[in-house]
Amino acid sequence: MLRAFVPRGLRPMLMALRLRYAIARLASTPPDRAPSERMLGLLQRAWGNEGFAAKTDYLRTVMAAALATSGPILECGSGVTTLLLAALAGRRGVEVWALEHLPEWRAKVARAVRGFPRTQVVDARLRPYGDFDWYEIPPALLPERFALVVCDGPPGTTRGGRYGLLPVLGDRLHGAIVILDDAHRPHEREIIARWQREAGVDYRPAGTFAILGVPGHAAKSLIPSGVQKVATLRERLPYERVISHLEQLAADAIARQKRSGDGVQASR
């Protein structure tokens, strides 16, 4: 609505001011508390990615995981979720590493998070790895182990899509939680099935995204399906609070989907 009353030449300046205000508000929230729905909407509008507004369940899940995770976080692709991870995890001393292959977009995200600690937006161009393409990253740059992965890249049009995450970095993901966006799309479903065959990942659908557990030394199954299994494993899971948050959020997302209709149409 406001856009109609603002001269075209002034709109970039207005958007930049709105984003600075939203980031300042986000930075003022306690690092151990998720932003309110109003704050989340403000941040989404200021970021300028209106299409992301439909992904509220996904953002809630990312925030819950960021609040509960104590180990390093890897993000594949960057954007408004990078800001949320920086605010909720980076300010608690948890390392956040976001991989971005588009230089201009990486520069925008890096500027947005520069006031937050422990957050790196890495210039990671795509390169061939045999029969798929994925991010090119110097092995010495990243931590030896990640506790959480937020996977919204590379784009679905990339050769192999997001499959490269486990083949390239699997040795750093033992026992990790993976939140995979766009998991309702056929290509992402194929990737999940391949990860299940090749790496034995656990899989929990949650509407347009999915929650996956990579097997590790801590527990054979990181996302058990039954309440009894959760109770049994909770004492020895390294990220038990993440599991508790995410299982509940996944169940809520599925329930909302059932109430709203027959399913979700692909958004991309």
Tell me about this structure.
The protein is of the alpha/beta class and 268 residues long. The protein has one domain: Rossmann fold (3-Layer(aba) Sandwich), CATH 3.40.50.150. It contains nine helices and nine strands. The protein has helices at 11-28, 37-47, 56-68, 80-88, 103-113, 165-169, 186-199, 227-233, 240-260; strands spanning 73-76, 96-100, 119-123, 126-129, 132-135, 148-151, 177-181, 202-206, 209-213. A seven-stranded mixed β-sheet has the order 3-2-1-6-7-9-8, covered by helices on one side. It has a two-stranded antiparallel sheet with strand order 4-5. Helix 3 packs antiparallel against helix 9 (240-260). The chain is globular. It starts with 10 loop residues before the first helix and ends in an 8-residue tail after the last helix.
The second-level CATH architecture is 3-Layer(aba) Sandwich
Number of extended strands: 9
Biggest sheet, spatial arrangement of strands: 3-2-1-6-7-9-8
Number of domains as seen in the coordinates: 1
CATH topology, what is it called? Rossmann fold
Apparent shape: globular
Distance between the termini: 25 Å
Binned, the helix content reads 40-55%
**Structural class designation:** alpha/beta
Low-confidence stretches: 217-241, 262-268
Average pLDDT for all residues? 80
How much is the radius of gyration in Å? 18 Å
Please outline the major beta sheet.
7 strands, mixed
Order of helices and strands: HHHEHEHEEEEHEHEEHH
CATH class: Alpha Beta
Please, how many helices? 9
Q: Please, what is the CATH homologous superfamily?
A: Vaccinia Virus protein VP39
Range of strand content: 15-25%
